[in-house]
Specification:
Length: about 725
Amino acid sequence: MPRTPRPDSASAAPPRPGNLPHEVNRFLGRVAELAALQEALTAARLVTVTGAGGVGKSRFAAHAAALIPRELCADGVWRAELAAVRRPELVEYALAEALGLTDHTTRSSREVLLDHLAERSLVLILDGFEHLVDACALLVRDLLRAAPGLRVIAAGRRPLALDGERLLPLAPLPVEGAAELFADRAAALLPGFRLDDGNRSDVLEVCRRLDCLPLAVELAVGRLRALSPAQLAERLDDRFRLLTGGGRDALPRHQTLRTAIGWSHELCTTPERLLWARLSVFAGSFDLEAAEYICSGDGLHADALLDVLQELIAQSVVSREEAPAGVRYRMLDTVRAYGAEWLDSVGDTERMRRRHRDWYMGLATWCELDWFSPRQGEVAARIDGELPNLRAAMEFCLNEPGETHLGQYLAGTLWFYWAGCGHLAEGRHWLEHSIELDAAGGGRPESAYLDSRLKALWVLGYVAILQGDTVPALAALQECRDEAERTGNTTAIAYAVHRTGCLALVTDDMSRAELLLRESLTRYREIGELNSNVLMGQVELAMALAFRGELGQAVALCEDVRQVCEDHGERWTRAYALYVLAYARWTEGEPAAARRLLEECLTIDHEFRDLLGTVLAVELLALVTVAEGDAAEAAVLQGAAGRMWSSVGLRLFGSGHYNVPHEVCEARAREALGDARFEELTRAGGLLGHDETVARALGGGSPKVTVPAPRPARALAPEKREPAASPTANGGETTG
């Protein structure tokens, strides 16, 4: 009997989705508060955990969320860290990034979030929002109204002040709980350490003096490498007298935290204080190479920086974490803010921010070059990890008089990330902002300044095509070409011609597409350009030829691309070449060969979070599946693809050529299943999430139902129709 496709066909429940980090040490205490949060979340959909800096809000919220019953968050628990987000308009991008969302349409990130969350049941943690409270409050209000299955845990120093908000003030630990925390962390630092009659009174005294704030306690524990608990208590007592003149009972909690951090700062050596201050220029996490370049010099030798950093880690000023791109380091926001004040007080903030900007400009340049190499996956992971720092670098450029062109350079250089890794909306934000500021400033010199603008323009055109926004795309590309021709910039001309040809391709003007794409490839050869963009132009030309029935030429072009990609280790463009080859194999009546090509294509697209490539592969796999005899599975895949198109744009770009395989698949599946069964299965496919769809599509299919075989050896052509008078309102790049 044919199987009945089910989105939840696994026999065992999969792990709950989400992005909560694994806890690296024990969570202690807070039993009553954990119960209170659980109770609050059953009665309200927004709970805000408030408290002083250092009281443990972030750790508490994450730990509590991990304990929430699955029935309240079937779609997982997700945390968005907002401490490193500096601009209100970037809050939506940060949430979309935390949820792993990609979207190729012109919808705002808010619309994407609303659509994604509308029918889901999940818990969202907003961590460190207090400097963006107005933007966060408005966004949370809209999300809660549109998504009845959403629950929000906000962790910050003040409420969001929204209707229905439940507040959970988090107080410092009780003194015995703080002492337990002290002992636990001390035992990790000094094996064999335990509370006993010889040190209990000193440990309790240290905890009391620090108002039992977890961060302050952990900072104090970091000093046990050199001091005993008695010495800690003695020195802390002296520090309090020095900073407050006695009267510790009147010390507010936030001042207690500041004093604890200041005390830890005073105990640092001069190089440690210097590094602490300089590390404050990083947004989010950072790696050793960046720290060595940005923070060394003027009293801190590069060769000694690692040793100094290790001391800051030992003192709990800096934490170490594992990431997909390797070992990284991070400072708590409160600790970073303290260092930033010291950096500002010595007048070194602007210099360090320039060094920070210069490092990340160099990183972006290297990553663009390395994208065309076997390290594409590493490059994508690296940019993922560095995105907060790249944002900070672009913001610095765009806020500094006379440096807008450097912001344009950064935004344009990151084209491969915006286009290849599912960040079109944010890329367009930075590109448009940098171009608008540049136009408003006026009076810029030519040469390098204009080169940066021209690159930003063609990348903006590329991104707009991928979003299906053809009118702004054409305007940006035309401006780029006009300025490039005026100044003789042959590279910018080639890219503008290429992307204009791509625009013709997705709007069904195959003759113009072939003409422009051939011209661009000739121009690329003349200037010696070879990279992923150049190969993508060759794939796009192959697609135009395939649509016109010239399969032999199309296959030859893509086999050449495939070979060049293998020679250079390039995988992203290779996936699109495989898609065209699969289209040709299916057209020639070879569904098994087409499936093999498409499965490799889909695996690569999914790895890079390339939503357009993914949905194109799923659509064609549905057609292959019905050709193999499994009409039911083909219907499920079509339903899943339909849901994905809502995040890409107009289904199949509104293109008659791209739509023919979809129509053929639907017709054959309906004939085999009947209309009612087909609709039922497409609805089931529409319930599949992105990862589930990819997993299902890669599961393969075998003949289950007898259906008519495809007609071999003939290129598909769209039904005759009048040519469009203007480009379609939506579209996207077929191959990249």
